[in-house]
Prior knowledge:
Layout: H1 2-24, H2 26-31, H3 35-41, H4 46-74, H5 76-96, H6 100-117, H7 120-126, H8 134-164, H9 171-187, H10 200-220, H11 222-252, H12 258-282, H13 288-304, H14 312-339, H15 346-374, H16 377-402
Pfam family, one: MFS_1
Membrane topology: Multi-pass membrane protein
Keywords: Membrane, Transmembrane, Transmembrane helix, Transport
Amino acid sequence: MTITMKKNSRLSKSRQFILLEMVFFLHTGIIGAVYTLYLLSLGLSLFEANAISAIFNIAAIVFEVPSGAMCDSIGKRKTSLFAGVTLFLAMLCFLSSVNILVAVMGQVFWGLSYALESGTIEAWFVNDGALKGNELDRVFAASSKIQSVIMIVGSFIGSWLADYSLKFIWLIPCISSVCFIIMVLKFVEDKKEIQPKSSILSLYKTSIKYIKIGGSLIVKNQRITYLYIFVTLMGFISSPLMIFWSVYLKQIDSGFSYMYLSVIWVFIQVSIIIGNQILEIIGKYIKRKKILMVTFLIFGLSILFMNIKNGVMVVIVLICIQEIVWTMICSIQRGLLNDYIDDQTRTTMISFSSLFNAIGKISASVLFGFLADSFSILFAWTISGVLSLFTIWFVHIMYKKLD
């Protein structure tokens, strides 16, 4: 009876985690296809729209680690509530869009909400839980798979709302952010006692303490060091795929319309679902190390094969293959990291992981952007493919330390 109750409890918490992530990220599907069009409708140039969008990334990076430390200090329930509130404020700013300053403020709130959510719900789910190893991978894969389905459905809803007014795309995100707040109040509880009368100064000091502990672990613990190098490599290698796929398709076929690109975006989301479904099945029987080595091999070879110009359809198939295996890699990385960090500093360490991944992506964006301008997109992609093959060796070395 006790074993059955524990199993049911694990299943219930897994479903709550998946539901919380789904509702929090619902807005990305609604706005994804028409977000840039919304910014342009405010009278911005394309450059100005990109500059304002960059504020979101900057805010997310600036607040990433401090927000994780804050979570470990004041608890996951309060931090999750703050994430929901700031997400609502961001969506409200975009809905009102009185002027550009309000849009900028919305970007700051939006980045802050992502920083607050990043790792908080994940840490709440993992801490004091019985799920480890491949079981965690399968839950993360299921969450990502469901988010992809929501992204596809949301894109059609967002496009339908945009036909009436681009402002309307923010209505459902406002509602979903309120739903997230209600769900946090219902689901998320902190088992650790939090001091109710902590001052801002003491909270700041405690947050700094957690950041120092996290930084010290990364430097001194070889297992953690290798894991964070791995996370940075992932951000670096994946960047060209995220940046260049649509540009490259337009290059090889100038008659390729934006409608076709939106259809390919749906194919990409379906590929993500397939990747997570494959991981859920094979994760029961095959060890992480083997899956990682095979997926990096497929990812690298598929990128190198893009040097063979056999038409648009071949490139689309290769991009979908890359999305399938990269989704599997990302889900494994989340579970792997959680196996080697403790409950007390989990949120801080996950925030460090997001920060390292972002550093990899930003540095890759600069380097590969330069290589693409100086040589070609294919040349930049080829470097990424070679690095992916190199990562197979790194995974082998990393597991020697982990084992």
